[in-house]
Amino acid sequence: MKTVGVIGSGISSLSAAAIVAKAGYKVNVFEKNEQLGGRMRQFTESGFTFDMGPSWYWMPDVFEKFFNNFNYTTSDLYHLVTLDPGFQVIYKNSESIKIPYSWDKLLDLFESIETGAADNLKKFMSGAEYKYMVGINNLVYKPGLSLRELITPETIKGFFKLQLFSSFSHHVRKYFKDERLISLMEFPILFLGAMPKDTPALYSLMNYSGLKQGTFYPMGGFKKVIDGVVKIATENGVEFFPSEPVTSINYDDNLIKIQTEKRHLKVDGLIAGADYNHVETKLLPTQFRNYKNEYWESRTFAPSCLLFYLGVNKKINNLEHHNLFFDEDFDMHSNEIYTDPKWPSKPLFYVCCPSKTDSSVAPEGKENLFILMPIAAGLEDSGEARFEYFEKLMQRLEKFTQTDIRNNIEFQKSYCVSDFEKDYNSYKGNAYGLANILAQTANLKPKIKNKHINNFYYTGQLTVPGPGVPPAIISGQVAANELIKKFRAQL
Length: 491
Ligand SMILES: Cc1cc2nc3c(=O)[nH]c(=O)nc-3n(C[C@H](O)[C@H](O)[C@H](O)COP(=O)(O)OP(=O)(O)OC[C@H]3O[C@@H](n4cnc5c(N)ncnc54)[C@H](O)[C@@H]3O)c2cc1C
What we know:
Elements: E1 3-7, H1 11-22, E2 26-30, E3 42-45, E4 48-51, H2 60-68, H3 74-77, E5 80-82, E6 87-90, E7 96-99, H4 103-113, H5 117-137, H6 153-157, H7 159-162, H8 168-175, H9 179-186, H10 205-213, E8 216-218, H11 223-235, E9 239-241, E10 246-252, E11 255-260, E12 264-267, E13 269-272, H12 276-283, H13 293-298, E14 304-312, E15 322-325, H14 330-338, E16 349-352, E17 367-375, H15 383-401, E18 409-415, H16 417-424, E19 456-458, H17 469-489
Parallel strand pairs: 1-2, 1-13, 2-9, 6-15, 13-19
Antiparallel strand pairs: 3-4, 5-8, 6-7, 10-11, 11-12, 14-17, 14-18, 15-16, 16-17
Helix pairs in contact: 1-11, 1-17, 2-17, 4-5, 5-10
Bound molecules: flavin-adenine dinucleotide (FAD).
């Protein structure tokens, strides 16, 4: 039986491992950290359970399609609930808009803000739905190895409708004038780690997911998704080796050699789901690398972030599960991330309060808070900076919630650039990989295949199709299927 090594146990690696094992190969997963799941890990302290990374569950069909490969449905593995409101956005003067799950109510809401906006939302969403259907059901499953992959009957027929070459920012402004609606429509682009003006309008497919499909939450947190994929992988024979980082990869006599902190082994195939830059620059000898250091220096990285995990000993008013504080200037903060990277002057931030939905993540009568402020990747994150921004964000949060939070904190932990570097070997401490700007979309992303080593593929948020949990699940499937195809061709 051929053996395959997988580096890392993030969701992309787990997805790849399960698919390769199901095809009948022996798969061993090596993970640097004690816990599986990468950026989707969880920790419990003082009775509070915190998801360390993702909190927005969008594109439920991607999860479902993945589990269906193994004759499971999502509901066999975890309990998914629909959030209603999906999220709230807080604007200047503490004005807030809550996004209802019901499409009709959403249309009414848009119309109440701007005359004609309901009809425009319908038109906008019809285009977004088309892009979602073609993009998510078709294009994102391509390995990005040849331009011919992108030429399908759907893409030829709908080339102009996909809007690969027009800017998202321009696209939104054709439909809406009210600044609140514009920022509401532009916010999902932040998930792609780029400024709306640099992002192709193709990505209005994200609006389809967030506003039309809805926002969901796996009860117990995102670790339940990891547990589900680990269960499936284990059932298919995958073996896991946590706390065992890979320290080097070599290639000789058509065999891939992996050195971990505990063993030396030879494998027939390799899928690397650790940060692409780390694998290339720290694990591979120069002659086997796809890219030079200058390549990485020239890439536009998605942001890193400053995070606070807080356990609060009382209930907090006015918060929903997801809360976006857009009470400061969006463009100024974006510029301080991408154009002129520095600690932001007046940052936007996001507060997740999962205890509003899930009583298992905080003791009774208490609240679990996850606060995220995007910052440029690579910034120095001293203790003073963390403290300064904690105070700034808490002042705004306390003002909006009319609650004294700082005097009621039972547990507090911050997490920033240097933690991403230390925990995940993340290049410049990036949180979400590479930005999805046009010059880094689809075939223009770092290649999924190693050019020099036979049967060696990359997966994860730095290669196709990009950042986010659903794309990472797809990335694992794409890498696994390429490797399986290669093995079968070698028979
Ligand atoms: C704070 C935050 C919030 C987010 N919010 C959302 C959200 O709401 N919704 C959403 O869809 N997405 C969100 N994302 C993005 C999403 O979490 C990621 O895109 C996705 O989890 C990445 O998965 P991955 O498999 O590519 O990488 P990772 O999860 O980073 O996995 C890589 C793994 O490789 C391991 N590794 C590194 N070096 C080695 C080595 N030498 N040997 C062995 N193992 C190694 C790492 O420890 C890690 O476990 C968020 C991310 C962050 C950080």
